[in-house]
Amino acid sequence: MQAVILKGIGGFYYAMDEDGRVHQVRAQRKIRRERLKPKVGDRVEISPGEGEEDGWIHQILPRRNELVRPPVANIDDVVVVASAAAPVPDLMMVDRLLINARRARIGVRLVITKCDMDEGGSEEILAQYRGAEVSPMKVSAVTGEGIDALRAALRGRVHALAGQSGAGKSTLINALYGLELETGDLSQKIDRGRNTTRSCELIPVPGGGMVLDTPGFSLLETEVFDPVEIKDSYPEFVPFEGQCYFQPCYHALEPRCAVRDAVEAGQIDEERHARYKSVLEDMRQRWRDRYD
To answer: For position 193, what pLDDT does the model report?
Structure first.
């Protein structure tokens, strides 16, 4: 029978079949020999166990998409969560998450949490992503602002929440779906969130769809690929493509660059473009070093 993997711990997987029954299964040896590792969100062919015996995963069905971190597959949307208050939002991480999701052909959505604590901060973040096609929303689990609208937008979708520790991902899921995921307070000493999510788990939610809460993290690296492709993950650059003097143009330091002109004219956010150049330079170095 076919099932979807909800969770994996220590070589054991928990897969839900089409009738909503959850089976404890393990990957067959042939899957391990092929160096395949089941991921949360994978659709798989399984045979249920009998009695106290575990069942088996016989085949991992073709994936529509996948991410390395968080390690998930077949996701409709990645909801990138950033905080308007503490911790200080890591927008470089946000940018890298958006790049990874778009390269994996996964829909993206930017959600600013804790907007009740710092209205100005949330507006400043949203201004940086104008034209970036991230369907931005402001929410507050305290006041309820934006919760109903976000829930409606995600209904029937398989979605993962990702972002730095302490941004309020678990709290947001609790507010959206009435769940009781563990949440943690911010460390006052280092101003970083205590990571309360220990593993990835896909959770069916009321109204249809599934949500995945992922462990928070404070460092994310993109895969190594041709640096000229990075600009393809910046929708705000699209209206200016083909107008630059040099082709292809990296939109970084080249003269007579239409994107740079747009930044100077205020049509593209200057800080967002500065982070783009940092990502580009980092990828250029990694691209040069890829065979070392």
So the answer is: 37
Residue type, 51: G
Q: Cα separation of 60 and 80, whole Å?
A: 27
List the one residue out of 159, 125, 133, 124 whose CA is nearest residue 233: 133
Distance (Å, rounded) from C-alpha 219 to C-alpha 69? Answer: 10
- Highest-pLDDT range among 100-109, 181-190, 199-208: 100-109
Start-end of H helices in the chain: 29-33, 91-103, 119-128, 147-154, 169-177, 258-264, 270-288
Q: What is the pLDDT of residue 181?
A: 63
**CA–CA dist 116, 19 (Å, integer):** 41
Which residues partner with 77 through β-bridges? 107, 159
* pLDDT confidence of residue 42: 97
- In order of start, what are the domains of the chain with their CATH numbers? 2-62 (2.40.50.140), 67-213 (3.40.50.300), 227-288 (1.10.40.50)
Q: Which residues pair with 158 in a beta bridge?
A: 210
Taking all residues of the chain, what is their mean pLDDT, rounded to a whole number?
87
What residues contact residue 247 under an 8 Å CB cut-off, 6+ apart? none
Rounded CA-CA distance 87/70 in Å is 20
32 Cβ contact list (under 8 Å, min separation 6): none
Q: Is the pTM of this model over 0.90?
A: no
CA distance to 83, 136, 172, 279, per residue, from 142 (Å)? 13, 19, 10, 35
CB 169 within 8 A of CB 176: no
